[in-house]
């Protein structure tokens, strides 16, 4: 038996289960996008180097993950 076949057989024993089910991806995406827009709005009003790690970085991460979850929730394959 080849190494690839052994890997395939081992993977069958533990199927992948996502962190958030397909039914909850829309809610997760909407919440993350809402958080991203609120944080980026607050950062736009109070721009400084001190608020960069507190507001801007979490806002960009929330927007990135929220956009991917929303794209997956509406059926666009990424």
TrEMBL record:
Spans through the membrane: 26-45, 52-76
InterPro entries on file: TMEM258/Ost5
Pfam families, sorted: Ost5
Localisation per UniProt entry: Membrane
Keyword Nuclease on entry: no
GO BP field: protein N-linked glycosylation
Assigned keywords, A-Z: Membrane, Transmembrane, Transmembrane helix
Record-level GO cellular component terms: oligosaccharyltransferase complex
Its membrane topology: Multi-pass membrane protein
Domain of life according to the entry: Eukaryota
Main function: Subunit of the oligosaccharyl transferase (OST) complex that catalyzes the initial transfer of a defined glycan (Glc(3)Man(9)GlcNAc(2) in eukaryotes) from the lipid carrier dolichol-pyrophosphate to an asparagine residue within an Asn-X-Ser/Thr consensus motif in nascent polypeptide chains, the first step in protein N-glycosylation. N-glycosylation occurs cotranslationally and the complex associates with the Sec61 complex at the channel-forming translocon complex that mediates protein translocation across the endoplasmic reticulum (ER). All subunits are required for a maximal enzyme activity.
Family: Belongs to the OST5 family.
The protein's assembly and partners: Component of the oligosaccharyltransferase (OST) complex.
Protein name: Dolichyl-diphosphooligosaccharide-protein glycosyltransferase subunit OST5
Protein source organism: Tothia fuscella
């Amino acid at each position: 038996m080849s190494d690839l076949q052994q890997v395939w057989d081992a993977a069958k024993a533990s199927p992948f289960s996502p962190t958030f089910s397909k039914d909850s991806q829309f809610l997760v995406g909407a919440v993350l996008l809402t958080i991203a827009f609120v944080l980026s709005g607050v950062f736009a009003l109070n721009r400084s180097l001190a608020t960069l790690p507190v507001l801007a970085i979490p806002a960009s991460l929330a927007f990135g993950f929220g956009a991917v979850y929303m794209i997956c929730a509406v059926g666009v394959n990424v």
